[in-house]
Amino acid sequence: MNTTWQNIHPAFKLNGLKYSSTELCEFAKDLEDKGTNYEISIGNFLIQWLNEDPTVMVKTSGSTGKPKDILLNKDNMVNSANATGIFFKLAENTTALLCLPSNFIAGKMMLVRAMILGWDLHITAPEKDALTQYDNDYDFVAMVPFQVLHSIDALKKVKKLIIGGGSISKELEAKLINVDTEVFATYGMTETITHIAVKRLNGLAKSAYYTALPNVKFSKDDRGCLIISAPDISEKEVITNDIITLVSPTSFEWLGRYDNVINSGGIKIFPEKVEEKLSAFIQHPFIITSEKDEQLGERVILIIETKDKNDKLDLSEAISKLERYERPKKIYTFSEFPFTETGKIKRDKILQILLNRKI
């Protein structure tokens, strides 16, 4: 007798072809044996998903600490898929594109949604211009900001787009304002089985706040950090390190990471908010962070990646957009930033390298 997750929706298709559970297992084994790297990860996950084990081992991205493996309940993953379908009104026969790596939760959940909700899921390599590879139109696509930036002209093929896995620059957000696609930023993590809240980035419904998916509630702790209550996907409340303004039990404004907050002369500065202001002016990868200061306790610094030692960086216009207390007291350059596998800058690693430079 099949368990809940093994009941493949009768409308499910992969690249236009229908599969029973048995046929899908055989296809997954072929991907494992003969596929490219991204196809092997798809095959690995499908085999895990279709077996009798009620859990799946998933690797976190390592953006907020060391990457680690965690166990997710398959029934909770099914609930997450259903919540996405309800929120975005994505019924059976939805056409979707998988262009994210399936060795992380975002790619895995696109497969789960397709199998559970009965979508026609097309698969392509998780490259920066993945959306431009085929002429197909799609009802639903999930991408990271870097992919979206290289796919602006192709977005007309997509009805609904969700963006996750990294911060969305002001430059990119400005490019999305006038596209016909419904574009959403997502909030979530591996522990919450991808997104549990979304924020519209364009159109009349554009918002500064994240709105909860079905059966998700928000509160905050004494640090001002978000607490997520989502019984369908997690038996326990998820206590985050994300500082928020709580707008209602189902909406919030994200301010930044608790671990990144800079206390400079008694003023709390959120690096992510400063980076958001600068992103329209600085084309290189960069971070806002801090170093010790005898008078202020901590002082704001800017670290930029540039491979050209002779690169003349004119940052006067960018810095003029900042409040006085937000302006970096020193600017450092790195020839190369360390990144996670999912393309996020490793802040802690950069600070460690900077500290070693000074020793």
Could you describe the 3D structure shown?
The chain has 359 residues and is α/β, with parallel strands linked by helices. It folds into 2 domains: 4-257, ANL, N-terminal domain (Rossmann fold, 3-Layer(aba) Sandwich), CATH 3.40.50.12780; 261-358, ANL, C-terminal domain (GMP Synthetase, Chain A, domain 3). It has 9 helices and 20 strands. It has helices at residues 21-34, 37-50, 74-88, 105-117, 145-149, 170-176, 271-278, 316-320, 347-358, and strands at residues 13-14, 17-18, 55-59, 69-73, 95-98, 120-123, 138-143, 158-163, 182-189, 194-200, 210-212, 217-220, 225-229, 238-248, 251-257, 262-264, 267-269, 286-293, 297-305, 330-334. A 13-stranded mixed sheet has the order 2-1-6-5-7-8-9-10-11-15-14-13-12. Strands 18-19-20 form a 3-stranded mixed sheet, covered by helices on one side. Strands 3-4 form a two-stranded antiparallel sheet. Helix 2 packs across helix 4 and helix 3 crosses helix 4. The longest helix is centred in the first third of the chain and has 15 residues, at 74-88.
Which secondary structure elements does this structure contain, and how are they paired or packed?
Blueprint: E1 13-14, E2 17-18, H1 21-34, H2 37-50, E3 55-59, E4 69-73, H3 74-88, E5 95-98, H4 105-117, E6 120-123, E7 138-143, H5 145-149, E8 158-163, H6 170-176, E9 182-189, E10 194-200, E11 210-212, E12 217-220, E13 225-229, E14 238-248, E15 251-257, E16 262-264, E17 267-269, H7 271-278, E18 286-293, E19 297-305, H8 316-320, E20 330-334, H9 347-358
Parallel strand pairs: 1-6, 5-6, 5-7, 7-8, 8-9, 19-20
Antiparallel strand pairs: 1-2, 3-4, 9-10, 10-11, 11-15, 12-13, 13-14, 14-15, 16-17, 18-19
Helix pairs in contact: 1-2, 2-4, 3-4
